[in-house]
């Protein structure tokens, strides 16, 4: 029998959340390194390089890999012979660990959780509560698997109730392209099959806690139905050509994870949940001897990857750039931004819309300015801003016409694709959409030299800031003529992959 003390459990959760905020699992790093060396698409290779460089920087600096430090999901398996020395429930202990982990002054993590989700959506300020799954198992210890899941990837979760005779692989291949690039590929896909709708979702999420091991499976061969599905989906998903950040390339998924459960004879529930390029999870055990000891990985285990912008880069002064200037920019170009860059995301855009509808003056002049879709982590020490990678731009599509036409924006910076109507609005207004690499938040933040809040300070990380940036790297994703890298790139690379396969078969 083991006696688990309240403080040991809370401290272990808090320490684990700090640990995963800046340490990628090494199996993920190695898989990304392999994808980097294999990649033939220059845009995708550059994106993977930035993700790997950011990963090492975060490990060295003990700062978040991604500005979206996630919603906490915790799987707690409690041995039947365990006793607790606590006056709190497991949920309450996890939540207290979350509060302490996210409010650590040495590495504060972004509070992203809002209460009253269908109404006022008020930030809880400490990222609690967590989503906790408790299971009683044989034994005399407690096993904890904990993850911090970003909203961009979580929002791309898909669920379907298939007929028993329907093909799971066919559904995955049809559904994956509809998920866009907001989940920051390449990453893992977790698939839950069977049980009921909610059981399939939990299975999918839990499967993402497993290490990347698809290459070991390829080497030894599949033995079970799940393993056969993993290999088939892995091969066919990568032939879609979606590539890193949705720009087109050879690697879209690093691994496929599948868990299943018995289900009703009339049912086949399937849930697919992606993990992003900021994959963050860790496992630990408690046996009553004290808090969990998490061994830091060795920095020499990270690959020595460099990224150079090249000679054909376009350097832009945001303080003087004009609409005539951006008309010269072409889809796929690398641009280095310097000067004053506004920020704003969901809550700020909604408030701007309300002010415009009410005829109120806006607190910020957006005319001929660029806006960056970001919610940064709080700064520490001499930082101008904490990790500040892009959020998913698609969520701002509903506001884009308003911001271009009424507010007078010149361009936008974010991650992932824009919808067809938004691309058309960009074309009509002769504006531009630039893409920063999702999953490279600490690297991007190094380009920010000064930051100040201009408006909506009460919104916290969703306030409107003004960043002063220097050589911030971005890619022209939609140019002023409406040419769209997130459509062209995957289409080109899907065709090239088919051509390569044809040559190999011949």
Description:
This protein is α/β, with parallel strands linked by helices and 506 residues long. It folds into two domains: 2-287, no CATH class; 314-489, fumarase (Alpha-Beta Barrel). It is 33% helix and 24% strand. It contains 15 helices and 19 strands. It has helices at 6-22, 26-38, 42-61, 90-102, 151-154, 168-175, 197-207, 214-220, 225-238, 323-326, 346-357, 397-405, 420-428, 441-445, 485-505, and strands at 2-5, 71-79, 82-85, 114-115, 122-123, 131-137, 142-149, 158-162, 187-194, 253-261, 268-274, 281-286, 314-317, 334-343, 370-372, 411-414, 432-435, 448-455, 464-478. It has a five-stranded mixed barrel with strand order 14-15-16-17-19. α12 (397-405) links the parallel β15 and β16. α1 crosses α4 (90-102) and α12 (397-405) packs parallel to α13 (420-428). The longest helix has 21 residues, at 485-505. It is globular, with a radius of gyration of 23 Å. The protein starts with a strand and ends with a helix. The model has no long low-confidence stretch (mean pLDDT 95).
Structural class: alpha/beta
- In what range is the share of β-strand residues? 15-25%
Describe the biggest sheet?
5 strands, mixed, barrel
Secondary structure tally: strands: 19
- From the alpha carbons, calculate the radius of gyration and give it in angstroms: 23 Å
What are the segments in which pLDDT stays under 50 over at least 5 consecutive residues?
none
Taken from the alpha-carbon principal axes, the silhouette is globular
How many domain regions?
A: 2
């Amino acid at each position: 029998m083991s006696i688990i003390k309240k403080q040991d459990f809370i401290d272990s959760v808090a320490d684990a959340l700090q640990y995963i905020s800046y340490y990628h699992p090494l199996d993920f790093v190695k898989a990304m390194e392999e994808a980097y060396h294999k990649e033939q698409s220059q845009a995708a290779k550059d994106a993977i390089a930035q993700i790997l460089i950011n990963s090492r920087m975060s490990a060295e600096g003990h700062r978040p890999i991604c500005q979206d430090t996630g919603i906490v999901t915790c799987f707690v398996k409690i041995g039947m012979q365990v006793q607790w020395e606590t006056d709190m429930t497991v949920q309450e202990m996890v939540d207290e660990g979350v509060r302490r982990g996210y409010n650590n002054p040495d590495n504060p993590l972004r509070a992203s959780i809002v209460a009253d989700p269908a109404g006022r959506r008020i930030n809880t300020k400490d990222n609690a509560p967590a989503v906790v799954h408790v299971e009683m198992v044989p034994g005399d210890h407690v096993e904890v698997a904990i993850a911090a899941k970003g909203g961009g990837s979580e929002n791309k979760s898909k669920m379907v109730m298939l007929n028993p005779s329907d093909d799971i692989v066919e559904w995955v291949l049809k559904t994956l392209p509809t998920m866009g690039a907001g989940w920051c590929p390449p990453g893992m896909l977790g698939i839950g099959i069977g049980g009921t709708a909610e059981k399939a979702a939990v299975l999918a999420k839990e499967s993402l806690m497993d290490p990347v091991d698809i290459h070991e499976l390829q080497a030894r061969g599949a033995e079970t139905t799940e393993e056969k599905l993993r290999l088939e989906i892995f091969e066919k998903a990568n032939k879609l050509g979606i590539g890193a950040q949705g720009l087109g390339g050879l690697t879209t998924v690093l691994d496929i994870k599948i868990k299943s459960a018995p289900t009703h004879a009339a049912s086949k529930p399937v849930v697919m949940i992606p993990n992003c390029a900021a994959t963050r999870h860790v496992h630990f055990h408690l046996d009553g001897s004290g808090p969990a000891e998490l061994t830091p990985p060795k920095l020499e285990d990270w690959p020595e990857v460099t990224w150079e912008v090249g000679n054909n880069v376009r350097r832009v002064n945001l303080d003087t750039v004009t609409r005539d200037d951006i008309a010269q920019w072409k889809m796929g170009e690398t641009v280095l931004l310097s000067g004053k860059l506004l920020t704003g995301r969901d809550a700020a855009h909604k408030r701007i819309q309300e002010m415009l509808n009410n005829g109120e003056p806006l607190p910020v002049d957006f005319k001929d300015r660029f806006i960056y879709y970001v919610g940064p982590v709080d700064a520490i020490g001499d930082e101008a801003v904490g990790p500040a990678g892009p959020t998913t731009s698609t969520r701002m599509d509903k506001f884009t016409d308003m911001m271009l036409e009424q507010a007078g924006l010149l361009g936008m910076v974010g991650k992932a694709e824009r919808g067809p109507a938004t691309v058309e609005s960009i074309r009509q207004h002769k504006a531009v959409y630039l893409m920063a690499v999702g999953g490279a938040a600490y690297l991007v933040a190094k380009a920010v030299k000064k930051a100040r809040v201009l408006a909506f300070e009460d919104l916290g990380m969703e306030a409107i800031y003004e960043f002063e940036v220097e050589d911030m790297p971005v890619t022209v994703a939609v140019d002023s003529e409406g040419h769209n890298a997130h459509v062209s790139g995957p289409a080109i690379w899907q065709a090239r992959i088919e051509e390569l396969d044809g040559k190999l078969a011949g």
